[in-house]
Amino acid sequence: MALSIATWNINSVRLRMPLVEHFLKVWAPDVLCLQETKVHNGEFPFSPLRALGYEHIAIHGQKGYHGVATISRLPLHELTDRRDYCGVGDARHLSVLFDKNGKTIRLHNFYVPAGGDEPDRTINPKFGHKLDFVEEMKLLHAEADAGISSILVGDLNIAPLEHDVWSQKQLLKIVSHTPIETEGLTTIMRDGAWVDLMRQHTPSPEKLYTWWSYRAKDWEAADRGRRLDHIWSSADLSSHLTNVEILREARGWERPSDHVPVIASFDL
DNA sequence: ATGGTCGCACCGCGA
């Protein structure tokens, strides 16, 4: 049986609901994890999603900033014992359980802090916040609960590998690709036994990007992208991976997000 | 060579 999971930093779910609807109609993943929904829970646009058959929706939002949502055709059990990462009350993480073909899967949806411009925590508290958040993520383990498989997706705001950025040389001192960040992400994966599904499917040195800055004159011609969005899983699921698609074309849609959807497909 | 663009909420902040 097929299972598909998508992740997409939407940069305002209300503004871009037409793009979300188009994506769900054409690509029809079983589950879509959104980040940067930028909407308070009371104003979340449930009805257009339910109308497309996505009746199971878990949200964790706040006014104006951040916010995550997990939108599903399969029934979800929302886990309400959520950790408040860094104790600052930001809506940056949501965890749900669902069942598929006899397996129980825990799905984490993350929006890691961007970290500001200066990669030095002594002068930039936002960078310190990002590092602290990554440190706390080291507590996550793909095999934390016996009998439960794990998937972790989201905008992690770190491009860990040389070929996850357009120029390693030019980005080593740029927040998202500094060694302290990339080593942090590598440690979370190693200690937590997570498999990087995008790189399992498309190994280095092929370039993989999921984000292109709004500030480029011509994002497509310059192609100065970064792989900031990720899909990881426990080993029992990675062996059933059939495809990973990065929807590059979505960056060229009308009034796009600066991130594009990534979709992982499994045969369970 | 060091700006450049977004979205939201309010005329700055975070990305």
UniProtKB/TrEMBL annotation:
Which residues of this protein are catalytic? Answer: 111, 155 (proton donor/acceptor), 259 (proton acceptor)
Show which residues form the site (Important for catalytic activity): 229
Keyword annotations of the record = Hydrolase, Magnesium, Manganese, Metal-binding
Question: Short name of one Pfam family for this protein?
Answer: Exo_endo_phos
Where's the Endonuclease/exonuclease/phosphatase domain? 6-259
Q: Which residues cross the membrane?
A: none
Q: Where is this site: Interaction with DNA substrate?
A: 259
Q: How is the cofactor bound?
A: Probably binds two magnesium or manganese ions per subunit.
Q: Does the keyword Manganese apply?
A: yes
Alphabetically, the GO molecular function entries are:
DNA binding; double-stranded DNA 3'-5' DNA exonuclease activity; endonuclease activity; metal ion binding
Q: Where is this site: Transition state stabilizer?
A: 157
Record GO biological process: DNA repair
PANTHER family linked: EXODEOXYRIBONUCLEASE III (PTHR43250:SF2)
Say which family it is in. Belongs to the DNA repair enzymes AP/ExoA family.
**Name under which the protein is recorded:** Exodeoxyribonuclease III
Task: Specify the species.
Answer: Pararhizobium antarcticum
